[in-house]
Amino acid sequence: MAEAKCVWDLGATLGEGPIWDAAEGAVYFVDIKGDSVHRYIPQTGATQTWRMGQKICSVTRRAQGGFVATTRHGFALLDLDAREVDIFADIEFGNPEIRFNDAKADAQGRLWAGTMDDSESGEKSGVLYSLDVNHSWRVMDGGYGVTNGPAFGIGGKTMYHTDSPARTVYAFDVDAAGDISNKRVFIKFGDDDGYPDGMTVDAQGYLWVAHYRGWRVSRFSPDGQLDRAIALPVAQVTSCVFGGPELNTLYVTSATQTLNAEELRDQPLAGGLFEIPLGIQGLPSATFAG
After folding, report:
1. Model pLDDT, residue 195
2. Cα distance between residue 99 and residue 78, in whole Å
3. Model confidence at 118, in pLDDT bands (50, 70, 90)?
4. Whole-model pTM?
5. Average pLDDT of the segment spanning 220-248
6. Is 21 one of the catalytic residues?
7. How far apart are CA 77 and CA 61, in angstroms?
8. pLDDT tens for residues 242-286?
């Protein structure tokens, strides 16, 4: 059985959104509540942190270089070395309680990103957006408590997206134009499972889901059946991505937010970055073409 190992005990408040940069051989991820972006290079163990002075909710590599990011209220081009955040779409600027959360590019180079009520008051105000390569954007779906984990099946014809408070992972059909249809329940978590958070798909078409407040990541078959679960020593497991030279290592982020003093004592590795060696190959992190 594969075991999770903490490779960077950084104590992130809300570690999220890991991507694998094959050219650098590095995992990039964000700490949304810590206003920072992090990089870990497995071959050397080298780490780097960029303090941004504002919320960076996700980062995705651009085909032209640099990153596209989701900020609190919109989309931006990101230059980490210059600490420059060039916002080009302030989508949710009119609602101070709303922020972006998770985002991911699809194989066609579009970016999909969702919003949420930052106070987590229970309002169903979260929206799923699609950002095209020309930087135009569309509302694709709505009515979410907390959007999470866009992930795409092999060939890109299926998208998975989550409403975490509802403990539900949905599946959608996606056509060549990027339109979605046939929204359906793919996985319904039980009370003991925690909340579905970030996700990724492996090369066999199985979906890996992080269990927030559930102490694990789980693998689900293309028909939504539980295949296996891997325990972690932290409760708030937030997201995962395949990386490494063979894309057969799962990198997992976690969070310390909302943990009380006793929980923090019992979970000294909370907020850390973990790796899980697997005999399963994943799919590469897609880049944004715009």
Report:
1. 98
2. 17
3. confident
4. 0.97
5. 97
6. no
7. 10
8. 999 999 999 999 999 999 999 999 999 999 999 999 989 999 999
**What is the SS3 string spanning the chain?**
CCCCEEEECCCCCEEEEEEEECCCCEEEEEECCCCEEEEEECCCCEEEEEECCCCEEEEEEECCCCEEEEECCCEEEEECCCCEEEEEECCCCCCCCEEEEEEEECCCCCEEEEEEECCCCCCCCEEEEEECCCCCEEEEEEEECEEEEEEECHHHCEEEEEECCCCEEEEEEECCCCCEEEEEEEEECCHHHCEEEEEEEECCCCEEEEEECCCEEEEECCCCCEEEEEECCCCEEEEEEEECCCCCEEEEEEECCCCCHHHHHHCCCCCCEEEEECCCCECCCCCECC
Tokens 């099946």 — which residue? 153
Task: State both tokens at 194.
Answer: 């925690």
Q: Out of 31, 102, 193, 197, which one is annotated catalytic? A: 197
